[in-house]
Amino acid sequence: MELNYKKNLENVLNGKEVDITPVITVTQSGILDAMKLTGTSWPKAHEDPEQMATLGASLHELAGLEDAKIPFCLAVEAESMGCTVDLGSGGRTPEVVKSPFDDPREIEIPDNFETSGRIPVICEAVEILHERYDNLPVCVGITGPFTVAGHMIGVEEILKMINLDYYGVEAAVDVATEAVIAYIKVLNEVKPDIICVADPTSSGDLLSPLDFQQISRPPLEDIQEAMKSQNVLHICGHTGNMLKDMLSSGYNGISIEEAVDMRYAQEVKESLGNKCQVCGNISTSKTLYRGTPEEVRTEVLQALEKGVDVVAPSCGIAAASPLKNIQAMVNARNEFFGIE
Q1: pLDDT tens by residue, 61-79
Q2: pTM of the model
Q3: pLDDT number for residue 340
Q4: Residue 294: count of CB within 10 angstroms of its CB
Q5: Whose CA is closest to 63, among 337, 324, 289?
Q6: Domain map of the chain by residue range?
Q7: Which architecture, in CATH terms, is 5-330?
Q8: Mind giving me the DSSP string for 55-77?
Q9: Order of strands, edge to edge, in the sheet holding 230-234?
């Protein structure tokens, strides 16, 4: 009997018992091996909905991952806010290179925000994926408000401003939150199965737990309330001392890196009543990118033994990661559950 990927993932994220732990990605999914095999490429797949849909589903088609994930960067909101974005090429992901805003209090949402940049491309790609697949969850990645605010005024600048101009930070984050909610409302129309909010500038490597509570958590809760899809919150790096806040901010799931021990994450989750599921934390930089299939297998089996709810890469997959290592994630999950 074929696994119903949509139902299986939906049940897990709703906290229901399932027979097989899903293996998906909620983070960057485009790899060079898959581009070669599917005739897609960057930057075209950032701007063409057909290529975006094809590349977004490529790790399902080629490696067996149980979702399609688009887009392939965290610069979508900034671009539609008027920032200059270098879309990159080859294996280089897009990055914000220039912002039109000098003062955080001057940031405003353009009138054409929802129809500019790549937002319409992403919405069309979601519709294409829904047409192509009955049984495959479509995951759209969006950017957390604090990270969007950092794109507007510079990451280093916003981190400095926490101590020097706190009200300026609040002003920037408030507008970024409004913009993200406007984007979510457009996504609600095309109905992705999951929205994953990536908020790397809220990492425990950059923010103290108190700063996270005061600056990042309230807007993350606000945008979650606007979503009609199931949702996952991904924050990079060392987030062990922020887990309680992440797990209790209203999301169906959180996504964590290997810097956080999965057994510890499950203990914190249990202490809060098991309402939010934990995805992760197969190392992207070390194991999936530079490791061997056997090393991937070992890490996946360990994560499953420690109680991971959804097996997933710990962060965005590096474009140069070998396809065989992504396949090894799925094979290890299958081995754990005795699936031929």
Answers
A1: 999 999 999 999 999 999 9
A2: 0.96
A3: 82
A4: 10
A5: 324
A6: 5-330
A7: Alpha-Beta Barrel (3.20)
A8: HHTHHHHHH--SSEEE-S-S-HH
A9: 68-70, 138-143, 194-198, 230-234, 253-256, 277-282, 310-313
